[in-house]
Structure formats: C-alpha cells, structure tokens
Write a structure and sequence with these properties.
This protein has 569 residues and is of the alpha+beta class. The chain contains 20 helices and 14 strands. It has helices at 12-15, 45-55, 63-86, 93-115, 124-133, 148-159, 164-171, 195-201, 235-265, 274-283, 297-300, 319-327, 339-361, 368-392, 399-408, 429-439, 445-451, 470-481, 517-546, 554-558; strands spanning 34-38, 41-44, 136-145, 182-187, 208-213, 217-228, 269-270, 303-308, 314-318, 414-426, 459-464, 487-493, 496-509, 550-552. The strands form four sheets. The chain has a four-stranded antiparallel sheet, sandwiched between helices. The chain has a four-stranded antiparallel sheet with strand order 11-10-13-12, with helices on both faces. The chain has a three-stranded antiparallel sheet with strand order 2-1-14.
C-alpha cells in the first residue's frame, strides 16, 4: 500500500511527531510507477509527488539532491514502521486510542464538509447590497438568553419599564456581552441575522424580540440611535473582502441549519436538571488532591441527555461519559459558573456523537481517501512510539557534545564592543530620502552624501557599548547583527533623523560559560538532536540490510519533476 506522507524538515526525528496534516491520500494505483519498496510498503510516484507538493521547500539543493533527500526521509519513515510492525505496536493501547481519536476527527471533518460545502456562490448583487448596508451604524443594546422562555421573560420586564442594563446583567451570562448589554455603535454586517437586521431596520427605542439567531440562542434588543456614515473605500476596492465575508456568513448559516436538522433528526434533548448536576460538581469545594471527576460508579450512570441512533433506538449520554469528555485534553470545557453554558456544552458533546453516527450511516469511513487518512494517522502514532523505542530513549548529551554544538554556532555568540560608523543627521525625513536615493549606486555613505551635495554633514565616529545614549542603546541589537558596509535609517531621534553606515566593528567572542542558561539548554537540546540523528541513521541503515524486499528505483525518481507540479510554498 502507498501513503501520502506530509513531511516537514530534513530529518525524520523532526517530522515524525504529529507532522501528518493530510488532506488526501493517493494510495497505490496501477497507473503510478513504483519508486521504492520497503517490506510490504510501496512508495509510488503519486505518493512521492503528494509529499513533495507540501514539503519541497524544506529540501534545498539542486533538483536531484532535493528529490533524493525527500526519498531518504520517506524510506526512513517506512523502515521505522517496520519496527512498529515487528513489535506489534498497532495493538498498543495508546495507538488504538489515538487511531480511534483520529478516526473520529476525520469522520467529523468529512461529515462537516458534506453538510456545509465550501463552494457557496455569492452574487454581485448580494455584494453590492452588503456594501450599502455597511454604511449604516446603530447603537445597539442586547440581552442573550439560552431559551425562548427566558427571552420572553426579558421582553416582558423591559416592556414593563425595567432598566435595560439591569435586565441584561441579570439574564446574560457574564462575559458573553459587554456590561448592561451595551454593544455601542456597531456597523451593519457585523452580526448574524436577524440581529444584523435590527441595526438597519428596527424602530428607534422599541424593544425587539424575542428572536432566535440560529445556532446562537435567543435575543432581545433595543436600538438607541442610527446614522449613515461615508464609506472608507470604494465598492471596487471592498468587493473581494465583502464577497469573502458574505461567503463565510452563508457557510456558517448553512452549517448551523444542517446541524440543527441533524439535532432534530436524532432528537437530542438535555435531561432536566443535568446542567445543574454538573454545576454542583464544578462548584462544590473538594479536599486538596481530590479528583473532582472521580464520582462513585452509580452516579456515573446518571442520564445527562437523550437521543436516538440511526435505526431509531434510544441512546443515553451519561454523567460518566460527560466526565470522560471533560478529561480529554483537547476538548473545550464549559464555563463552570454558568448553567446555560453547561447545557450548551452537553448538547455539543451529544451532537459530536450524533455526527459520528450520521457519518457512519452515510458510509463516509468506506471512502478510500478517508480510510487511508485514518490509517496514516495511526501510522504516525506508531512512528512516534517506534522512534522513542529505537532512537530517542536513553539519549543524553555529554559536555563534549554540547561544546561541539557551541563551536558550530560560536560566531553567533559575540558581544558588540564598539562600532565605527559614518552618519548624517537631518531635521526632517525629506533630506534623508534624498541621501538614500544615492545609496544604491555609491560605495560609502560619504560618497552618497557627496553626490547629494551634503558631504559636510557626514560625521564619522566610534561608538562603544554598553552606551547610555538612548539612540545607541536602542540601536545596539541592530548594530550587533549588521554587516560592515550595511546602511541603516532613517532612524528617528529627539533631534531629527539619522542615516548611518557601519564602517567597522569590534566584537568580543563569548565563552560557553557566559551564555544564558536558556541558550546553554538550547545547545544541549541541539546536541541531543544530533545524537539522535546519528542513531536514526544507524538504525535505518541496519534495517535496510535485513528488510526484504528493500529496493529503490532511481531511474523512476529521475523522471519526477522538481519542484513538483502544484507545489505549495
């Protein structure tokens, strides 16, 4: 089988971990010639080109050298997978767990693309209307509620004369909207509908709502004022930006409606009292060191939400599942002090399960591209473990290794003692512009100044460091890195503007002991990386001798274009 490996840098240890941002997989194809075989794995021209399109810029040198470097990384990757196979890592519990997670991520992304396609058209008339809307601004007050019942209570109290700010602060969860629900003056186009329509159309001072913004919740609003403002740019200038904004709004609305339909289809319903149960769990004081999520087994079976599966059979989402989801490191957690946010989080967790059910009902996982993507991510999990076992474990750098890393970069670790410069000071930037126009065809700043008729303004001086003068104190980092002959400026000072050129530099090499602890640690990590690279080369070289089949077809590789067609920068 073939794979599309999405690589990063030049050595395997640097791209093996989580480097597979795969959008599609080529796989083996009778039309794709074979470049190499490593045991049961095959690298085809199609596989190679897919990896090259994403990573070609990471491989410098002439085309033939670059292609061979990329192929070497692909071969090393497959050889490490041979280690993973020989040790049965695909049955390792962590790999099984990561593969399950990868499968869910791929299926969720695929069902999301099916439900809300990205290719949504936007007409010129829509863009022109949107452009006109953006010239309207209104001062908007807003109250958010998570249910229609609460929103109706808000509207009743406001129409009865209660202060808007008091009602907004009572009903809107803290942090969702500005204090008092006061959004200030806001331009049309900034909000989702129907809230955006209020900016343009709602009567001034009249309570609006309750209305539901799809996927957002329920709102009550009041417009305090409205005005038209001049457009900052012409329609032609704004057209591409506005078209993209409109497309995003349409995509978001299509996605929201699709998932709402899915929610209704699978009859998702949060159990009454479930958000309050989680609220109590989040906010009850616990003894020091106690795991808040370690609840007794009987409590784990408490029902948090109900839904049905694709066949219509009832399904439950329990407290135990909610606690497991809360433990997931990449899973978003609700605000623990806001019951509406907890309820929304419960709906999201069930919605995730429903989306997976729908993806499997549609057979998305049977698509060759999707199944190979899942397989490749599982391979990446096995690669990480195989790399740790065969290469990374037990590696440390001795003093000699760290010193060697220091010597490779010693020229970078110097302190600026003094710099000899030529400079010209100006009262304004116009004079400096006139001097700089001659800089491209003159040898030194003095020569350029002579051409510009200002040779008498040139000052040559030696500046030592550290220097208390604010100008040189600010310029020290730049001067440290500038090469002899390099220009800088115009540089603004309290007295005006300066253009300068470095004529000579005095640098003091630093010893390893003079480096900061952070830099020393960085050099140690580099030394460890170099040792691991050598070990990786030794491991994979030995595997080449014993892996059968192991064959490379350079004549096939030679016919592959470089840079690859469709390469990404």
């Amino acid at each position: 089988m073939g794979r599309n490996a999405t690589l990063k840098p030049l050595t395997l240890r640097r791209w093996v971990f989580g480097a597979l941002g795969i959008a599609s997989l080529s796989g083996c194809s009778p039309q794709s010639a074979v470049i190499a075989r490593v045991g049961p794995r095959v690298i085809t021209v199609e596989d190679f080109e897919a990896a090259a399109r994403v990573n070609w810029s990471q491989y410098p040198g002439n085309p033939e050298q670059a292609k061979h470097m990329l192929l070497d990384d692909l071969l090393r990757r497959d050889l490490l997978l041979e280690i993973a196979d020989s040790r049965g890592l695909e049955r390792d519990s962590s790999v099984v767990r990561l593969k399950r997670t990868a499968e869910q991520q791929v299926l969720l992304a695929a069902i999301g693309q099916q439900l809300a396609p990205r290719s949504i058209p936007v007409s010129d008339a829509e863009v022109a209307t949107f452009y006109d809307w953006s010239g309207t601004r209104a001062h908007l007050l807003l109250v958010y509620c998570n249910s229609r019942v609460a929103a109706e209570a808000v509207a009743f109290q406001l129409r009865a004369g209660r202060r808007f700010a008091d009602v907004a602060n009572q009903f809107t969860p803290a942090g969702l909207l500005p204090p008092g629900g006061d959004l200030g003056e806001i331009a049309s186009g900034a909000l989702v509908d129907p809230l955006d329509a209020f900016i343009r159309e709602a009567p001034i001072g009249v309570i609006q709502g309750p209305v539901e913004a799809p996927g957002e919740g329920w709102f009550v609003a009041r417009v305090l004022s409205r005005r038209r403002v001049p457009q900052k740019a012409t329609f032609e200038v704004q057209r591409p930006i506005l078209a993209d904004m409109l497309r995003q709004r349409k995509q978001r609305l299509a996605s929201t409606r699709a998932f709402q339909a899915l929610r209704d289809q699978y009859r998702i319903a949060v159990e009454r009292g479930a958000p309050q149960e989680l609220f109590a769990l989040f906010n009850t004081p616990q003894p020091e060191g106690h795991d808040r999520y370690a609840v007794p087994a009987p409590d784990r079976s408490h029902v948090m939400a109900r839904y049905i599966d694709a066949s219509g059979a009832p399904r439950l989402y329990t407290l135990g599942e909610a606690l497991d989801d809360l433990r997931l490191p990449d899973n978003e957690r609700p605000a623990p002090s806001m019951t509406p946010a907890i309820e929304e989080w419960l709906q999201q967790q069930v919605m995730r399960r429903v989306a997976l059910l729908e993806a499997r009902r549609r057979g998305i996982g049977l698509d060759p591209t999707v199944s190979r993507t899942i397989e490749e991510r599982a391979n990446n999990a096995m690669l990480e473990i195989a790399y740790q076992l065969a290469v990374a474990s037990g590696v440390d750098a001795g003093d000699a290794d760290v010193r060697a890393a220091f010597e490779r970069h010693a020229i970078q670790y110097q302190r600026l003692l003094a710099v000899r410069i030529q400079r010209v000071a100006f009262d304004d930037s116009a004079g400096s512009d006139r001097l700089l126009r001659h800089g491209g065809h003159s040898g030194t700043l003095r020569d350029a100044a002579k051409m510009a008729g200002m040779e008498d303004k040139v000052v040559e001086e030696r500046v030592s460091f550290p220097n208390p003068d604010p100008l040189w104190k600010a310029m020290e980092p730049n001067l440290q890195s500038m090469s002899i002959g390099e220009w800088a400026g115009p540089v603004k000072t309290a007295q005006g503007w300066n253009v300068l050129q470095v004529i000579d530099k005095e640098m003091l090499p630093l010893t390893f002991e003079a480096l900061s602890p952070a830099i020393q640690q960085g050099l140690r990590q580099e030394a460890i990386g170099m040792i691991r690279d050598r070990r990786l080369a030794a491991v994979t070289d030995s595997l080449k001798r014993i892996t059968r089949p192991f064959e490379v077809h350079p004549e096939v590789l030679k016919r592959v274009p470089w840079p690859p067609i469709g390469a990404m920068n």
